Automatic annotation (TrEMBL):
Protein's UniProt keywords contain Nucleotide-binding: no
Organism: Mucor flavus
Name of protein: Aminotransferase class I/classII large domain-containing protein
Keyword annotations from UniProtKB, A to Z: Pyridoxal phosphate
Domain of life assignment: Eukaryota
Family named by the database record: Belongs to the class-I pyridoxal-phosphate-dependent aminotransferase family.
PROSITE patterns: AA_TRANSFER_CLASS_1 (PS00105)
Keyword Cell inner membrane set for record: no
Family annotation (InterPro entries): Aminotransferase_I/II_large, Ethylene_sulfur-biosynth, NHTrfase_class1_PyrdxlP-BS, PyrdxlP-dep_Trfase, PyrdxlP-dep_Trfase_major, PyrdxlP-dep_Trfase_small
Amino acid sequence: MPISKRATETLAIQSPMSESFFESLGKLHDPVLNPTGALNLGVAHNDLLQQKIFEKAQECLQITPEDINYGAAEGSPRLRQLLRDFFTRHFNPIYPIHWQDIFAQTGAGASINQLFMVINDPGDYCLIPTPYYGALDYDVQVNTGVKIFPAHLHHPDLNNMTVNPDLLESHYQRAQSEGKKITSMIVTNPENPLGRCYSAQDIKVFLSFGSKHQIHMVFDEIYALSTYGQLLDEKKEDPFVSVLSLPYKDFIDPTLIHVVYGLSKDFAINGFRVGFIIDQFNGPLKSALCRGAYTSTITDRLIFNLFSDEKWIDGYLLENRQALAESYKKTTQFLKTHDVDYIEAEAGPFMLLDLRKYVEPTFEANKLLWRRLLDSGVYFAQGVGFYTPEPGYLRLTFALPWSGR
Ligand SMILES: Cc1ncc(COP(=O)(O)O)c(C=O)c1O
């Protein structure tokens, strides 16, 4: 019996990032199954405070008789109320966030997929600036019928995050001329794989662009609280600016603004599968979101217990930033000593290595190098998986404890 047309289309979706990860799977280090396997420096995970979060999670894990029953699809009111306080403390929202604006999902990836089920129709295109987090290929496209239109926005200088409105517009016009209808855009801020943030001015450029073309704007802010650039240079402020902190109603119809957050990165609990959509003004969308997701009541209670301890949460976030800054400093010193170029980062557990002076300028040569590194014991994520405009880049996760040497 054949499967549905939708599922057949889904199986045809390509994601170079996920494919190279699958290729590495049997070769990665595992203390029991593969003790001599390759060190995993390719997945965007933060191991720095793993023990601390593990102990706290153990303390928070609890089941009550009431948890055996169905919970609320979009998360319990008590959890959403706590999250309202959390987002209000850390994202500086200009329009007060109400707990009814927050929708629990099974991860940020699932949140994006859920949003695209609701905001776009099959055949629509979503514009995404490159380089971008390669698994968006799945998150945006699986079962939605929506397609991605990649736009090289930071080419040729990946160090420069400033958004050129004319360049952005020219990508939209190119899509038009190819008969592709752009109905949405994703802005990942802080960016993955660049590990850098957009300024308030850049975000305003995005908002004006979204308004001009009346398209949905999805802001993926999953790395929001993993900024550390301000700890490396006292003169710098926290580089992260949430779209929620800007008067976005002045720039765009606010029903077009959607924010995604999750606990996999800043809280390093990717196995728990927790993400959120924050939507402040789109009533029909909010109603639609209440029909999806269904996080487990056990997870709901665990996260509720965790976020009830405000002092712990805020202390953890500070310690995490300090640990990221420390590890970034050590890593960049190491890279300098070994004459490896990199894109300077300020947020998140990874950075982009620039190996262009060491490898031929082809994606094939890049892949060969990547495979050689994997066979020699280190797994990186390939730049091609993030649609870097040129070959020669690898993403390195530096949020791992150093062995002391
Ligand atoms: C930018 C970005 N968005 C979303 C995700 C997915 O996160 P989750 O584990 O919450 O699905 C990731 C994971 O790497 C990411 O980097």
